[in-house]
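hey m, so remember when u said the tokens were messed up on ur end? i reran from scratch. heres the input so u can diff it against urs
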Amino acid sequence: MVINATKKGLITGLLMVCAGILMFWKDVPLNSPLQYIGFLIFGAGIVWAVYAAAKWSGARFGTLFNQGFRCFVVVALIMSVYTFIFWKANPEIINKNIAETKAYLLKNPQDRTPAEIEEQAKNTLKYYIPIKVSGSVFGYLLTGVVVTTVVAGILSLSKKN
């Protein structure tokens, strides 16, 4: 059975979601280096899609990049939906993050008054999820382009030599 790049992206995205849920259940902090396991899975999925295409496509860069693109776009979509659902389901984490930032800013006000800090906290609460989702989308798209370009470039050059 041949699995196309889109299905490989689906499999990769679902594995990344499973890894994210597992780390959440195990209370792995959001700033832990273990969170990079998702990016490791992401990169491996792209390599899987591009490398498999290199075997049958003649290893032209455009064809290889196309396969990686199909994979990482599906992953970016899955992860953006997961990010949205995660933050909607866990408002207590949002409130905790905002409270910690607010407490820090009140101790170190720089050029802000307490009223400005309070207003900033309210605005942050309003825009927290859209910022997280857009960061997720752009982060995965950018990472996908870089990994796909590198892998497709290496494989296409190695087939020419």
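this time it looks ok to me. The two ends are 30 Å apart (CA to CA). if urs says something different then somethings off w ur setup not the seq
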